[in-house]
């Protein structure tokens, strides 16, 4: 067999693993995403290696996932949750940063390393929570909307904090904080303009759209375009994808786009994304840093639950709902690893701290789906 086509076997194995892992997880009454990540870890232990091709397909998976999250967002609720999202994001940044930085400083006595690890711990990877909330039909709940809004704010503030830190300790490597802030502002202005234009076009030319194909194709094109633009502007690609979904959620074509994108994403792309997360975990490297890793895991989880939970509590949520929001902000994945790798390349942290971040990502990614399901099932039982 021509090795040029070996990627087909890789994709087949990954999709089969995702299907089996998701099925077993569901049988055990756990979210499917948990099983998909776990089988990815097994595959990554010598069975398969992530390739550039499979990584790109996985990236499309997370872009589709956030696009769907945007499509399923109730814009009026999103506007109303602006204040609570800001409070949740603020608590979810300040508490983990202070707790992790303080704990690491006591261990290493190195101010730069401790602050950097604190910044890494602020990153929220909302894709894990989004998929779990979707499986439980809670994505459009008040808590789900707040988690999404808070994660976007987290992302932007995290980028600015990272830029400020790198600019301070390594001026030749860091960009201007003002420049980064300007680019982020420009991105949101462009998004507003694009959104307004799309809503007007769909309204004025709705009759000309082919109900089965054309509007969905255009939606994907715009989603990919804004995802690329957001990445180029210094904001994560998933933010551009999410806001494209929000824009299309305000059009009359919303249900058609949701239905078709769900089919495309769920058949192939999102399972590949969650399997690839597991495959990307260096399990042996992670466990070699179990000492400092354990400290970071404990404080990064407690920091998000207490910080984001307190923000939710102060915004009018009850204790159960605040706990759900706090847990929804716990997972860290690709963003934390990207930041940690950057710090390692710049010499800001060592191999031990990099391994500790991988361990934190592994534990928070695997624990969040089960914790979210537990926190929501508790309130459902109480109501019953």
List descriptors:
single chain, 384 residues, mainly alpha, Na+/H+ antiporter like fold
Provide structural commentary.
The model has no long low-confidence stretch (mean pLDDT 82). The chain starts with 5 loop residues before the first helix and ends with a helix. With 384 residues, the protein is mostly helical. Helices cover 80% and strands 0% of the residues. It has one domain (33-42, 51-383): Na+/H+ antiporter like fold (Up-down Bundle). The protein has helices at residues 6-27, 32-43, 52-71, 75-80, 82-108, 111-120, 126-135, 142-169, 177-204, 214-232, 237-249, 254-279, 283-287, 290-314, 319-328, 334-345, 351-383.
Quick structural gist:
The chain has 384 residues and is mostly helical. It has 17 helices and no strands.
Beta-strand content: under 5%
Determine the mean pLDDT: 82
Major sheet: none
| CATH-defined topology | Na+/H+ antiporter like fold
Helix/strand structural class: mainly alpha
Radius of gyration: 20 Å
How many domains? The number is 1
């Amino acid at each position: 067999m021509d090795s040029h086509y070996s990627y087909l076997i890789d994709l087949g194995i990954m999709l089969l693993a995702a299907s089996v892992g998701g099925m077993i997880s569901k049988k055990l009454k756990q979210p499917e995403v948990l099983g998909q990540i776990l089988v990815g870890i097994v595959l990554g232990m010598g069975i398969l290696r992530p390739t550039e091709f499979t990584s790109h397909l996985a990236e499309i998976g997370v872009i589709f996932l956030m696009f769907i999250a945007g499509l399923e967002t109730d814009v009026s609720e999103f506007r109303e949750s602006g204040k609570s999202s800001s409070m949740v994001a603020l608590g979810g940044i300040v508490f983990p940063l202070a707790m992790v930085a303080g704990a690491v400083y006591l261990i290493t006595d190195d101010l730069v390393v401790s602050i950097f690890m604190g910044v890494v711990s602020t990153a929220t990877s909302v894709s894990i929570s989004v998929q779990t909330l979707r499986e439980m039909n809670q994505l459009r709940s008040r808590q789900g909307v707040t988690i999404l809004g808070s994660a976007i704010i987290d992302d932007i503030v995290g980028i600015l904090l990272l830029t400020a830190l790198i600019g301070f300790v390594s001026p030749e490597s860091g960009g201007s904080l003002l420049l980064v802030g300007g680019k982020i502002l420009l991105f949101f202005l462009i998004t507003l303009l694009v959104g307004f234009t799309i809503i007007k076009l769909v309204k004025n030319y709705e009759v000309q759209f082919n109900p089965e194909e054309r509007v969905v194709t255009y939606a994907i094109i715009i989603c990919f375009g804004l995802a690329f633009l957001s990445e180029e502007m210094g904001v994560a690609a998933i933010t551009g994808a999410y806001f494209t979904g929000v824009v299309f959620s305000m059009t009359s074509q919303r249900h058609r786009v949701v239905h078709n994108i769900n089919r495309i994403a769920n058949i192939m792309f999102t399972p590949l994304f969650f399997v690839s997360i597991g495959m990307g975990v260096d399990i042996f490297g992670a466990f070699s840093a179990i000492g400092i890793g354990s400290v970071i895991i404990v404080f990064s989880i407690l920091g998000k639950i207490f910080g984001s939970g307190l923000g939710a509590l102060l915004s009018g949520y009850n204790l159960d709902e605040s706990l759900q929001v706090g847990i929804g902000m716990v997972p860290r994945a690709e963003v934390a690893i990207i930041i940690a790798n950057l710090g390692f390349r710049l010499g800001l942290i060592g191999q031990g701290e990099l391994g500790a971040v991988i361990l934190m990502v592994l534990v928070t990614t695997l624990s969040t789906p089960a914790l979210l399901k537990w926190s929501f099932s508790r309130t459902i039982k109480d109501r019953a």
